[in-house]
Structure formats: structure tokens, C-alpha cells
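Reminder to self: C-alpha cells first, then the designed residues, so the page reads top to bottom the way the pipeline ran.
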């Protein structure tokens, strides 16, 4: 799993993480890769709980331990998590190859194919590689890539109706979506005691 947990951390996830020592349940993905602001949680004293989930696990504090409280993602972090830079790199590399080697009507077709492939790869990459749990976040990542392509032109620039300034409106609209799209809390998984 990547070193940076790309699952969005909401206020509900923070509440569930703080309640983990009491409830025995932690938000999914905190079990194998806690968010950056939650590293070092717990003192490792007796009564600790090990959270299993396919990875090395992380230790959740016992009820008497001092807890470092995680925080929900701020606007910039949400923006970064919605836009996978790996996919942007893929798209930019592929379109630079097309721009440098293909002309005429086939250029539009190739740019269209790359756009469709990038959107499909975005969904698969978010789900399979980044282990994004919520389908809403995966959908927003696909929209983010589409908005990026629209804003730089890409296949859309080969259409007669497209104007470059439309991209600014698309970016502004997406910036607002990042702020207002609600996400449900991460599903919770059962924590198991270390002695079990």
C-alpha cells in the first residue's frame, strides 16, 4: 500500500478513530496505513489493541493511553487526494507522444482514446492500487481527470465548439465540488487484541 493513505479522512472518521479504544472498531484503511496525522498513536503499553487488516497493522491505544487525535483532511489535502498525480503523468506522457507524432484527423481520434483510457485507468488505479474505499471518492477522481483534460484542451480542443476559456469555468466548478461533496464515513473494521 502506498505510504500516503489516499482515502479521504472526514470528521466522522476522526470520531470513529478516537472512539476505537472504547468500541474496538477503527475506520478501514487506518488498520494498515493510518493517516499521516495519526502516526505514533498510543504508547504501546499493556492493554494495547492491534488492528489487523492485511498489513503489518498499527497499534491503537488502550483507553488509559494518551491519544494523538487525528484531524480530518483540509481543503488542499482533499484536492491532492482527489487528483492522482500518477494518472496525470500517464495522460501527459501519452498526449505528448500523440502531439509529437500524429497529425490530421487521426490526432483527434487518438486523443479521444487516450482520454477514455485515462478515465478507466483512474477508476481502476484508485480502487486497486490506492485502495480507495468509497466509490464517491473514486468517481470524484474520474471527474477530476476529465476536468483537467477539459481545462488543458486535449481531445476537447479538437471539437469546433470548444473555447479555451471554458476550462477556467470547469476548474472553478470542480474547486467548489471538492468543498461540498459529502463523503460517508469509512467503514469500520474490528480491532483484535494483541494477545489473541
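Designed residues (196 positions):
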Amino acid at each position: 500500500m502506498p505510504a500516503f493513505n489516499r482515502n479521504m479522512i472526514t470528521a466522522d472518521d476522526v470520531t470513529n478513530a478516537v472512539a476505537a479504544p472504547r468500541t474496538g472498531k477503527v475506520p478501514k484503511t487506518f488498520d494498515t496505513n493510518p493517516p499521516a496525522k495519526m502516526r505514533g498513536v498510543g504508547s504501546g503499553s499493556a492493554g494495547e489493541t492491534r488492528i489487523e487488516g492485511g498489513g503489518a497493522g498499527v497499534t491503537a491505544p488502550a483507553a488509559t493511553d494518551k491519544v494523538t487525535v487525528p484531524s480530518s483532511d483540509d481543503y488542499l489535502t482533499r484536492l491532492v487526494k482527489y487528483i492522482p498525480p500518477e494518472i496525470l503523468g500517464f495522460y501527459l506522457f501519452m498526449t505528448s507522444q500523440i502531439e509529437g507524432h500524429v497529425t490530421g484527423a487521426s490526432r483527434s481520434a487518438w486523443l479521444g482514446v487516450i482520454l477514455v483510457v485515462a478515465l478507466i485507468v483512474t477508476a481502476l488505479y484508485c480502487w486497486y492500487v490506492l485502495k480507495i474505499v468509497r466509490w464517491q471518492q473514486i468517481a470524484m477522481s474520474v471527474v477530476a481527470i476529465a476536468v483537467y483534460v477539459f481545462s488543458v484542451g486535449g481531445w476537447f480542443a479538437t471539437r469546433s465548439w470548444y473555447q479555451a476559456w471554458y476550462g477556467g469555468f470547469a476548474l472553478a466548478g470542480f474547486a467548489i465540488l471538492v468543498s461540498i461533496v459529502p463523503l460517508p464515513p469509512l467503514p469500520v473494521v474490528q480491532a483484535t487484541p494483541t494477545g489473541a
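Residues 75-180 form one domain.
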